[in-house]
Amino acid sequence: MTPEEVGRRVVALLAPVEATASVSGGQGYARATVDVPLTSWADAVRAARDDAELDLDFLDWLSAVDELADGFDVVLHLWSVRHRHGLLLRTRVPRDTPVVASVVDLFPGAAWHERETHEMFGIDFAGHGELRPLLLPPEFEGHPLRKEFVLASRVAKPWPGAKEPGESEAGGGRRPVRPPGVPAPGEWGTTPTPAGAAGAGEGPRGGTPARPARERPARPAPGERPARPASGEAGPGSGAAPGADEAGPLGRPLPGERPTGPPRQEPEPGAAGES
Hints:
With 275 residues, the chain is of the alpha/beta class. It contains three helices and seven strands, in the order H-E-E-H-E-E-E-E-H-E.
C-alpha cells in the first residue's frame, strides 16, 4: 500500500472519530501520518495492528515533541513486516494535564519507550503501572527534553597555562611537553640553579644545572680588518703556548735561519775497539 492508501485506511477504521491523514516528507521514505484525538489513542493503535490490510505488527519507536503552549505531541511509529509499509500516529496532550493511555498491553515493547518519554517530558501513561526512572538518577529533578528546562552550565575553572597575559587569573606559561623517558629540568646534573630561576618547580632539584661561561673574542667593528699577530706572538688558533721564545712556536727556526740543535758528541778514542 502507498502512504496515501495507508492513511485513508486508518481514517476509515476510526470513523466516525475525526482523524486527519497526511504524508510525511522524505520522498521514497515518506510515511503515512495520521493525527487522532487523545481519547482515541489506544483504539487507533489497536485498529492499525489488527486490520488485515494494514497488519502493522511491529512497534518501531515511541516518543514526544514539546510544542510549548500547545502541549506535547505523542508520536508512535508502526511497521508492517509482511506488507513493508509504515504508519506514523500522533496525538496532542495538553501541557497542564499531560496524560495519555498506555499501549503496553498492545505492544509490550512500548514499556521502555513510555518510561523514557515519561522521564524526559513528564507525560504520564495511564495503565503502564511501572513508570520508574530509566536513564536519570532517582534524585534528578525536572524533565530535560522540555523546552523550558534550563540546562546546567559547566563550572568555569581558570586555566593554569594561559597562552596570553591576562587570559587566566592563575597566570603562568604552558607546561612544556617532554617525550617519554626524558627527565624534567632539575632532575639531572650536579649543580642546580638558584631558587626562583627559570625552571624552578619542575623537579626536586629546583632547576637546570648551571654551565660554566665561555669567553669569546671580541668581533671587529664593521669595515675593520683584524690585526695580525707580531712575529713570535701567538695568535688565536695558532696553538702556541704563552711565553714562546724567539725560535718560534714549538722551537721551530724562523725563516732564513739554519736549524740549531744540541752539540754533537764525538766518541772517545779506542771506544770502538773495546769489547
